[in-house]
Amino acid sequence: MNVVIMGAGSIGMAIGAILKEKRGIKISFWDVMPGKVKKQEPLPDLLGTADVVFLCMPTFALREAAKTLRPSLKRRTIVVSLAKGIESDTDFSADRLLSKILPWRQPFVLLFGPMLASELENQACGHAVVSSFSRPAVFKIATLFSGTRLRVVKNYDVRGVALCGALKNVYAIGMGVISALEAGDNIRGAYVAAAVLEMQYVVRRLGGNAETVMGYAGLADLVATGLNGNSRNYQIGCALGGRGRCRGSEGSRAAVSFANLLGKDIKHLPLMRTLHRLLDSGADPEELLAAVCAS
User: Fold this and answer.
1) What CATH number does the domain located at 158-294 have?
2) What is the CATH number of domain 2-155?
3) Catalytic site residue 38?
4) CATH 3.40.50.720, the chain: domain bounds
5) The pTM is what?
6) 123 and 142 Cβ atoms separated by less than 8 Å
7) Which of these is catalytic: 22, 168, 264, 267?
8) What are the tens digits of pLDDT across the range 79-111?
9) Is the pLDDT of residue 243 over 70?
């Protein structure tokens, strides 16, 4: 099997290392940054024989990557996206963006869950949901990872999985705020419970299945991301709580998009509403603790 990994960053390299544990797989890396991949072959040449293409980049780069690979894709090549966010200009999550850009009926898969690159690189295991409109594509990717350190489960709620991936980044920011304020584990536990209920509301409201939130793409990934000091979303929360500054993240961008998508319905989501206020207008971070206590 020929596998192409677009994006030679930490998660792309981690996925490559995991797949190298299996025989019969040829792995090729490609990156838009010149010199990042030694002896890099032209992308059209790689795509011409690719069975699976992994898109390992942030959501803001996903559209351009999909456009770049589209002309050279074989009809049955499976495109696997790890981008857990929402495109700012369109408010499209990964499922809708790929449906718009890729050729009609091109199979694509979302691979979401608690699989922090830093841990995978240290030989730890990870867990993920494999989700697609194509059942053969789901089975093929699940089989690709069978017997590896990345344990995957199948899920056909593509909309719900896509939304969970973006939502957990938003709520992980709140975990950073709570840590920065040294609010304690009681508040942290209550926050997670309230965040899960809000995630279920949003997923249901925007066309997914609320049950998906309780799996790897939702709750599991929220806890992993929200307790990881290397997470950009966690760091954003720490900055909002008064521990310095940090650049934007998937979660900070998604918070704006969810406010747009939900409109007046955001009034039903005190945590989401407060996080949006913190990011948008620099509100007092103590408001988040008040929102948790009132939930």
Assistant:
1) 1.10.1040.10
2) 3.40.50.720
3) no
4) 2-155
5) 0.95
6) no
7) 168
8) 999 999 999 999 999 999 999 999 999 999 999
9) no
